[in-house]
Write the structure tokens for this entry.
Amino acid sequence: METVSQQRHFNVGEYSLVATLFLRCLALIYLSAFLSIGVQIEGLAGPQGILPFTDVIEHYTTEAGISKYWKLPTLFWLDASNAALIGVAYAGCIFSLFLFFNLLPRTSLFILLILYLSLYHAGQLFMNFQWDYLLMESGFLALFLTSRSRIVIWMFRWLLFRFRFLSGASKLISGDPSWASLTAVIYYFEVQPLPNWLSWYAHHLPDWLLTFGAGLTLFVELVIPFMMFLPRRYRFVAAWITIVLQVIIMITSNHNWFNLLTIALCLFLFDDKAIQRALPSRFIDWLIRKPLPVPSPGKIYRYSFSTVSAVLVFVSIILAGEMFVGEKATGLTKEIVNVVRPFHIVNNYHVFPTMKTERIELVISGSIDGNDWQTYTFKYKPGDANVYPEIVIPHQPRLDWLAWFVTIHPMFVPWYEKFLYALMDNRPDVVGLLENNPFPDKPPNYLNIDAFRYTFTDWKTKQETGNWWNVEYLGPFPPLPGIYREQSQP
């Protein structure tokens, strides 16, 4: 007996099934993102967190006047307490489920975008990542997806093109020697922010294969994106090549839901006919059981969205131009960009434009008397040499991830210093972000920060010792070797 989808004829060049499938994927990605930030936001940005958002609110209140609401679009103007932060995160989970089950989809999409934008601003540095931008831009375009407008489909392809092409272009523009010499992937699996256990095995692949992988990455990012605007069969090739690369990255890294969102965006390179052929008929039956509401857009809608699309394309070209020429826009162009920028509905993208060639980890130890020292352990980033590197996707451990940048650039030292003082105060919300608290009863009076070089063990060492890492002591971390209680906090 034929299923409903087998009886129904899906046509080439139609996208209702594509839209329905994408929104289900987007709902699950939103759910992952809100759940992930919900268990961390108190320690990151709560009143007793590392970077309290209440301080930002106070600054904008005194500095920006009435324009503060535009410069800092967030619901937390009303309340930035822990309860409000967590409430917004878990409200996002609820509306993600609404979207997944196709309940009030357009309303849910609008609310999800506002909730995530609010958390983005609240999280400050901890939410300042490429995947956050990509999710907000995708979420904005999804607001118009229920119309099944061809312009919306094109805008999603334009987003995917920009994301992929700019990620490749940034690697060349940076002048990074490891990308220029095609050695970046030789280092990548070892030095990436949060490796997993499969990263160890990938690191030990032959150098010639990893060199080929670097060249392939540049080819897929710089050449393949242009196929996204060609006839359908070329788009299919571009989609599958992109998807395969994302799967490889996903299983050898911990990039949360980043790769999953990229794969979901590849759906717009297909059409309904292709999706029908690729997926089981029973799954398609479930998708179309309650079809998306499809209004018949009038002239006002068509003209308004066409205008919005034109502005977004214009701003995206300006932002890309800033990256290529290394100069910010000026005059009227700058004003237009600044109007759009706080909402992150159009963004620039760059993924690993430079590659570290060694992994330096900071180890924090505390003491009450200055003689007996205890070590703080992070939940996910490398610590003990024999600890199994976990697969944590789609979770995004934002403290562990941002700590990776502290040894790269001095701009990240100030937040880390605030983190250290939060540990010295034994703030429960902050200490709760770590695997352990060696001072549960009385906070430490001294903290030392030491630098260690981490390298993956070889096959023989791992077999004999069970260790995943070789750990070499380098000495105190020069910008911030230690703090003690009498020091004034930043």
